[in-house]
Write a structure and sequence with these properties.
By secondary structure, the protein is an alpha+beta fold. It contains one helix and four strands, in the order αββββ. The longest helix has 35 residues, at 9-43. The chain starts with 8 loop residues before the first helix and ends with a strand. Bound molecules: zinc ion (ZN). Zinc ion (ZN) is lined by residues 50, 52-53, 55, 68, 70-71, 73.
Length: 80
Amino acid sequence: MFFAFTITPELLAATLLTGGMACIFALWIFYERRDAAVYDTLARISAFHCVKCRHTYSAPSQPHVAPCPNCGFTNGYLKF
Ligand SMILES: [Zn+2]
């Protein structure tokens, strides 16, 4: 069985345009999800300022208190 199919310039252009748009859409979705994951990670970091040694530090989750890595004094998180 012979399948006769000719590629016209219009068909080639439409195929390339559709494929390009699909690639751009896929990259858009990928980077949106990656940026959302990075933002969620950054939003969960709490900042602390030690009242004893004046060291500023952060904790990866959202605790209300965390010990200072320099002196061990327990401080409350900073509210902005
Ligand atoms: Zn300290």
